Amino acid sequence: MGDLRQAKRYRFGVFEADAATGELRRQGMRVKLNAQPFQILLMLLDRPGQLITRDEISRVLWPEGTFVDYEHGVNSAVNRIREALGDTAGSPRFVETLARRGYRFLAPVERIAGPIANPNPEPKFDRIDSVNAQPLAPGESSAATSKDLEPSAHRDPQPRTRILSTPEDLPKTSFPVVQTLFVLFQLMYLGFYVGALANLAEIGDLLSLLPMATLMFRGLIVAAAILIPARAFILCAALFHAPGFQGKFLKLWPFLLVFDELWSLSPFLLLHHINFGLALACTTLLVYSPFAQRSLVLMGAGNASGSLR
Predict the structure, then answer these.
(1) Whole-number Cα distances in Å, 270 to 140, 190, 191, 282, 293
(2) DSSP assignment, residue 243?
(3) Who's near 255: CB < 8 A, 6+ residues apart?
């Protein structure tokens, strides 16, 4: 019988890390993660809940006598891990920073040991992704398992049906760019609300031609009065890198989505100054605005680690 060695695999949340192949996967889809960050991730997964010091990480990544900026190198590698996992330093779900000491993995970790044969040829298995895969019985047809041999990405329907983006779907962009764009979005909406309240008489004349004009007019005033402090909170939280900003924004986002889609009609409040075609063009752009804001937050807007780490 061939020599068997145990390859370490770890499962945590929707992720799975394979030490043998050096791959990180999310629900079967491969997540890009370079060698050094992946090595740190394996150290954390091997000792969940325990402190992994920065010195330990440095000794593993860079042999003695290597001249590198350890501090920057470790910070950069940990940030790459957080980006791959969709995690943040301010509100960590996976990798927690222990100030001036090191890092700790927070989520429960399941260890999976899968035997890998060497050097004998691999037997046929009834499922390619089974932890305890069994060889086919003599004479059993392998045709029944052809679907199981397809890559997991083809078996997972989520990538085809998912509408909202995840951090893995978004490009890696510098922090100043996403932060500036996100802040500009908030200022734009504040301008809408303040401008509407400053021109109530003109808006009232415009709405008077529509059914339920009084109800729409009062709803506009109430919505603007509620959303001004909400936008001010989001703007300040993003500018000052409030801890857990990403999680708080994502919880608030469904509420904002409803109002932002309604306020995408705000260009029609300017029909005294612009024509119908221009108002329609602006509205179609504003319909996408709440989704763009969500993507910017997932790309790091408002995240302290984008500028401080």
Answers:
(1) 73, 16, 13, 11, 24
(2) T
(3) none
Closest by CA to 83, choosing from 219, 199, 174, is 174
4 and 18 Cβ atoms separated by less than 8 Å:
no
User: Do you find a cis peptide bond into 157, omega within 30 degrees of 0?
Assistant: no
Which residue ranges make up each domain of the chain? 3-105, 171-308
**Strands 51-53 and 95-98: what pairing?**
unpaired
d(CA 206, CA 173): 42
Quick: pLDDT tens for 268-298.
888 878 888 998 999 999 999 999 999 999 8
The reply to whether the predicted model has a pTM over 0.70 is no
Can you give the pLDDT at residue 38?
A: 92
Total Cβ atoms within 10 A of residue 99: 5
CATH classification of 3-105, choosing from 1.10.10.60, 2.30.110.10, 1.10.10.10, 3.40.50.1000?
1.10.10.10
Tokens 């000491």 — which residue?
101
Any idea how long the chain is?
A: 309
